[in-house]
């Protein structure tokens, strides 16, 4: 039995598998062709393929056998980025890379640089970003930096100006549905149209969360319904939401208060 989480099982393995991010993918393909890459910032909503694109790039650029040596992935939100920059990144950038290695996929020599990937870079403090800027300046000849974030405005100007920025767009509804239905087919799961729509709404367009939700629902019942989606998500049923909204329109605040209290006592998520 395959116990691999479906978000990993169905994660895009190649750049061509990344959907709806034409500009970023075209640039990454050029990187593989020329072995020339600027520092990068990938930003946009969660679940749109930022991390998957980097993983695919590393796999195609270095070959699977060289990734551990050539790619360092870190979460920049740890300690707000201070220790990540001062200790882990600085130590990694100082390590010499093996030369004359070959990519087993392309049978071509590897680039003369390695990659540092910083996830949640928008959670770094200004001091941490300032320290990172200095490291980027010193080690640019042997290291390329890729920053991943949801909110580009939280990246300081000195970092922003040293990187090429690519926005990962929200994936269109029809593309999400097609992807999720294909997963259901592969896993021998049936799902109603209403349940599929409910998953997309409750996961706020995050394809990664949607895949996880389908896997969780299928553990309970391979026939996924709206009710099972609501049970997994912890959200109150639609009829309760409608009842509260109608009471709000009538300005029946006491009834609204009682309904909300009942929802909380029933253990539903009201955040």
TrEMBL record:
Residues 36-173 form the AAA+ ATPase domain. One of its GO terms (molecular function) is ATP binding. InterPro entries: AAA+_ATPase, ATPase_AAA_core, DNA_Rep/Repair_Clamp_Loader, P-loop_NTPase, RFC_lid. One of its GO terms (cellular component) is nucleus. GO terms for biological process: DNA repair; DNA-templated DNA replication. Gene3D superfamilies: 1.10.8.60, P-loop containing nucleotide triphosphate hydrolases. It comes from the Eukaryota. Pfam families: AAA (PF00004), RCF1-5-like_lid (PF21960). CDD domains: AAA, HLD_clamp_RFC. Keywords: ATP-binding, DNA replication, Nucleotide-binding. PANTHER family: REPLICATION FACTOR C / DNA POLYMERASE III GAMMA-TAU SUBUNIT, REPLICATION FACTOR C SUBUNIT 4. Belongs to the activator 1 small subunits family. This is AAA+ ATPase domain-containing protein. It comes from Piliocolobus tephrosceles (Ugandan red Colobus). The lineage of its organism: Eukaryota, Metazoa, Chordata, Craniata, Vertebrata.
